[in-house]
Amino acid sequence: MAKYLRASRFAVLAALVGIWIAGCASGVDSRTEAETLVTRARWTVEHFQTRQDDANVLFRQRLKTAHAIAVFPTVTKGAFFVGAAGGQGVILARRPDGSWSDPAFARLTGGSFGLQFGGQSAQVVLLIRSPQALDALLTHPGAIGGEVQMTLGNWGSGLGAATTTNIGADITAFAQAQGVFFGMSLGGAVIERLDSLNAAYYGSQTVSARSILKEGKYVNPGSEPLVAALAVR
């Protein structure tokens, strides 16, 4: 009996150690995923900042007055037609002094949202033009097409700019496809907060998108290159 109890205790201890190791590995993986996403978001911003076309001019003009920006480095085609996740990205908000907050993590997915393009993925940047729109996105994921209205700023490089005539729109969307854009429908898009990546990136289980973007309670030095890339050239 004593031998059986010792074996049982050892088995339980081994299981607990395994769970602890798996949890540590998961935390490291999430942190690496978040750090990689921030780096890719910086590359996307730099790409949009340096494009030599009409969309570049419009993007920079709108960025000057944007209250926040959402950057999704890779939005996949299949996601919108088979229901998989569309793409992960980051949101940064402009502070009262004109500087930018650190990033909060988010996922862009479809509802009636659809993309039709020749390539398999696209870089999507959303310029959030009012504080009310940012508050709506923080409070009610999926507000696009509901409380928040979106218009197109550009239909992809090579097809010219499809500039919006609705200057008061809450969000202007810019997209660059790895292929050819045929169309873009943004109604019903959902922006979900990724609390797990926020927690991994900032090392806190109590972090929230609002505490990052609106309250400035959390910072990570690794996001400095991304913030610097947002400086209007």
UniProtKB/TrEMBL annotation:
Name-wise, this protein is Ysc84 actin-binding domain-containing protein
Question: Which Pfam family, any one of them, does this sequence belong to?
Answer: Ysc84
Q: Where is the Ysc84 actin-binding domain?
A: 109-230
Q: Which is an annotated GO molecular function term of this record?
A: phosphatidylinositol binding
CDD domains recorded: SYLF (cd11524)
